[in-house]
Amino acid sequence: MPLIRKGVTVEDEWTTLASDDDTIFDEELPAGDLIVPHRRLASARQRKHDGKLGVAIDNDLDIGALEALLGTVDLISVPFPAFGDGRGFSIAKSLRNTGFTGVLRAHGPLIADQAAFAEACGFDEIEIPDDHAERQPVDQYATARTAFPARYQEAYDAAPQTVSILSARHTARH
Prior knowledge:
Layout: E1 3-5, E2 8-10, E3 14-16, E4 33-37, H1 41-46, E5 53-56, H2 63-67, E6 75-79, H3 87-97, E7 103-107, H4 115-121, E8 125-127, H5 130-135, H6 138-147, H7 165-173
Parallel strand pairs: 3-4, 4-5, 5-6, 6-7, 7-8
Antiparallel strand pairs: 1-2, 1-8
């Protein structure tokens, strides 16, 4: 699966442990940076392991469970089961607004047009399925993330010189 960061394909430094393979957690955890399913996070924390720890959450996790992740993991992978399912965008904004500073990864069939919005909501990277990448090559993500520089919403990390369309209209009226 291609991993896209700022419109460029990058090497995935993390190993994702499958959520349906319980036997992995009966053995020694593999070396390196690991992404574990949310239901296995407590078990993974108790195991000795030499890398960073990330978690793959469900997109219906409540805000209390999300806040409990702050300061305990280095990466949170948020699923997008379909490109039309926008719950992941809300999760990213909530995590960033509550202080999560680690890596946020969107995982699923996001289309290139959603890349800039994903970044504005706080995602650092997007992992798309191989079949999706065949239909929409990664270079389209690079083009799309800068195609519309003006936004209606404020980005969570907006630079001071970045002004939303609504803020610009408000300033122009006064």
